[in-house]
Amino acid sequence: MSRDVAAFVREKLGHEPRDIGLFELAITHASVSSESYERLEFLGDRVLGMVISRALYERYPDEPEGYLSRRYNALVDRETCAENGREIGVPALIRLGKQAREDGASQSENVVGDVVEALIGALFLDGGIDAAERFILKLWEPDVSSQRGAPQHPKSALQELAAAMNVKAPVYEVVARTGAHHAPRFTIRVSVPQLGEAVAEGTSKQEAETAAAAALLSQLK
After folding, report:
1. pTM of the model
2. Nearest alpha-carbon partner for 191 in 220, 153, 164
3. Above 70 in pLDDT, residue 1?
């Protein structure tokens, strides 16, 4: 297994690992061991945020903070992390306990996204900020380049629409929570008086709320 992980780090992360144990920890789910990727994910999330923030600051020198924040939020969200993780084959490497594996945790957006951030954390510790930055900028470049304009988050757009129409702010309600602890699915209803309501699902409350807001906006177009 160490050999497979080392090959992955060389080929996909572009780094010669010194401490392979860091990268093995980065792919280890809590269903396998009490020593899991969670601390590395905490660190990697901050490293990713710093690198993306700097990239946007330099790439869009004339944009105000609000526009940069819109771009940033879209680039570091769980969906983008998971998509990029799947692009380089992360799901096949994740170490899972039997039940988590049977529950499909290797395809969970939350788990894949977390492992990507954990790998960034391991890369930062093993190779420094330069190694982490090279990897992030290469993998995220298509996402950065595809942002022609600063995207507006659906929840923000719905909030602004409600304010513009002088009605109460959107209310989000958890309709259901299903699935295992490590692979949950949330069903969220968003309602805005005089405008309507919509229901959507996601692997986190945030994801489901975003999907519900987008669905209601689509109905109102």
Report:
1. 0.75
2. 220
3. no
